[in-house]
Amino acid sequence: MSILVVRQDEKISDWVSALQQCDPEIPIIDYRDSHQPSDVKMMLVWKQPQGIFSTYPNLECVSSMGAGVDFIFEDPSYRKQIPMTRVVDPLLVSDMEEFVSAQIYNYLKGLHIYTGNMQQALWEQKPYLRKSDVSIGILGLGVLGSATAMSLSKQGFKVQGWSQSQKIIEGVSCYDGTALDVFLSQSDILVNLLPLTPQTRGILNANLFSKLPKGSFLIQVARGPHLEEKDLLEALDQGQISGAALDVFSQEPLDKNHPFWTHKKVLITPHCASISAPSSVAPQIIDNYKRLLKAQTLLNQVDTVKGY
Q: How confident is the model over 29-54, as a mean pLDDT?
């Protein structure tokens, strides 16, 4: 039995190599190479070709290469009775903490403004904000959201978090599903780290933006379909949202003609906030494969009913 690696870009070879180095005795197969579908017991995937799961009759586990799993659920050939796992990795967590922190400090100090001024040789000081001037709201308190909230709290920020179920995090004011409006009304900087589910798709919309303090700043680092892009553009133009740092989009790469590219209040990054490192992730994939063979509990298993 084998692990099939499925990814539609040049990075697939890095994943195959990392898994082979982790345990040379386990057959690791690049899905583009000739193989026997009946031999595949586990699939490691990232934005796989639609319909691929139906080809493998003995498939017993589907593992995402990252923290996100929405692209697996969206594939009609995936069957919910097949266990699904995702990556929970210390490097992914620290990468996200650092990225969000960098975006917050950039916003507070207006560093992106000075980058633009350099192109004009413009020497012009701008007013800036301090930690005490803002309250940060973390939308979604899963592994990444909770860790980011704690990190920001330790840095001296006032931090609050929201999730469907009540959470307890030291130094963070936590709100549950019944108190979203209260949470939003106190979030000068809103960081989206929600999982993508049917309930959260399009949650970053005009209605939500209207409940934030006027002039709030958005950091979108979860999944592209969370955001209603036209609603954000309107909120930016009306001044309800003062700016947005966007790392994920419904269509990636972002279309070259998209208005986000030229909007003065938008900072775009190419889905780089937190990227799985094959060498760091491979051990947990191999561990789960061995657990699968022994019919043991899998690590980081996704609740296929909840969708995360």
A: 97
Q: What is the tally of structural domains in the chain?
A: 2
The two tokens of residue 120 are 């004009």
Residues 240 and 97 in one domain: yes
State residue 202's pLDDT score: 98
Map tokens 């940060």 to a residue. Answer: 136
Q: What is the mean pLDDT of residues 57-68?
A: 96
| Residues noted as catalytic | 223, 271
Question: Can you give the pLDDT at residue 86?
Answer: 96
Alpha carbons 33 and 130: distance in angstroms, whole number? 55
Reading the block at residue 121, the tokens are 């040789």
**Is residue 185 situated within a structural domain?**
yes
Q: Is residue 301 part of a domain?
A: no
Long-range pairs, 127-132, Cβ under 8 A, ≥24: 131/155, 131/156, 131/157, 131/158, 132/158
The pLDDT score that the predictor gives to residue 212 is: 98
Domain limits for position 232: 90-268
CB-count burial class (<10 Å; 0-12, 13-18, 19+) for 261: exposed
